[in-house]
Amino acid sequence: xxxxxxxxxxxxxxxxxxxxxxxxxxxxxxxxxxxxxxxxxxxxxxxxxxxxxxxxxxxxxxxxxxxxxxxxxxxxxxxxxxxxxxxxxxxxxxxxxxxxxxxxxxxxxxxxxxxxxxxxxxxxxxxxxxxxxxxxxxxxxxxxxxxxxxxxxxxxxxxxxxxxxxxxxxxxxxxxxxxxxxxxxxxxxxxxxxxxxxxxxxxxxxxxxxxxxxxxxxxxxxxxxxxxxxxxxxxxxxxxxxxxxxxxxxxxxxxxxxxxxxxxxxxxxxxxxxxxxxxxx
Length: 281
Description:
This protein is of the alpha+beta class. The protein folds into 2 domains: 129 residues, Diaminopimelate Epimerase, Chain A, domain 1 (Roll), CATH 3.10.310; 132 residues, Diaminopimelate Epimerase, Chain A, domain 1 (Roll), CATH 3.10.310.10. It is 16% helix and 39% strand. The chain contains 4 helices and 19 strands. A hairpin with a 2-residue loop joins strand 9 and strand 10. The longest helix has 15 residues. The chain starts with a strand and ends in an 11-residue tail after the last strand.
């Protein structure tokens, strides 16, 4: 692929523009990232993914993740599964290791077109989320417009998980950005509203940091399961029902989180060079 070629993929409607820069290419400015991610003037996506040469010897690729606002983040489970599927096809293998700024993510292809990724350990200390002040992350001292008492979890990125009676009744478009940018979260946060349907089935909606409402969020589903287990509301393996479909999440005995779900190819294309022009920094 040239530096202008892209692949559009999604996991349960959580969609990505993927650029392959393993053979080089110019760095993308924040303005270029925003232009590509724009759903009216660009291609449009929840995250822009750039494949770069691996830094670790055991990894197949380094995956860089950008939000539509141009900011960089450390983890995206659905994107990891999409990128891993590309690598597996290239290698004719059922296994791939994707490197991110948050660590190495081990991925495997399973039956029925499902891909699993080990998202690494759940981080639960207040400094790992992070939050502003020392506190018990099982009950964060936060209340915003009727949502209160969230659980803090870091799955390569920060999450505030709120348990509610009806996830679909929450005005997430209004309250999501308020919580994301609350001073209690110095690095901002993802926001999940979670309804327990049964001990092995969870309903979740998400406001993603830097992206807004998305149809699915892999790290958010992991955070929701961990939070539910910590509150005694769920088994350690459960189906998480998202707007775009279902992810199977397992919080393993070694503290790592395993996520399993489908991926889909949408289309391939070539970027207009004008989208890469840095006009606004």
